[in-house]
Write a structure and sequence with these properties.
- This protein is mainly α.
- The protein has a domain at 10-49.
- The chain has two helices and no strands.
- The two termini are 34 Å apart.
Length: 70
């Protein structure tokens, strides 16, 4: 893995540390890697989305019920 240095506002670092303290992430590095993965994923969807926009004729969607805990 490569090492990078990033400057972040104090409040952002405090919030990051809180995620680690609550056990959501094992450490700062893993939390930052997760954020980078999410950013890359979202940006990659932007390049795919225009080709997948539904047309009015395609919009015959059914209502979907989301069950709690799923």
């Amino acid at each position: 893995m490569s090492l990078i240095s990033v400057h972040v506002p104090k409040r952002m670092l405090e919030e990051l540390d809180e995620l680690v303290r609550r056990g959501i992430y094992p450490n700062r590095s893993e939390a930052i890697r997760a954020a980078i993965r999410e950013l890359i994923y979202k940006e990659s969807l932007k390049s795919v989305r225009p080709a997948q926009e539904p047309t009015p004729a395609d919009d015959q969607s059914e209502e979907i019920t989301v069950l709690p805990g799923r």
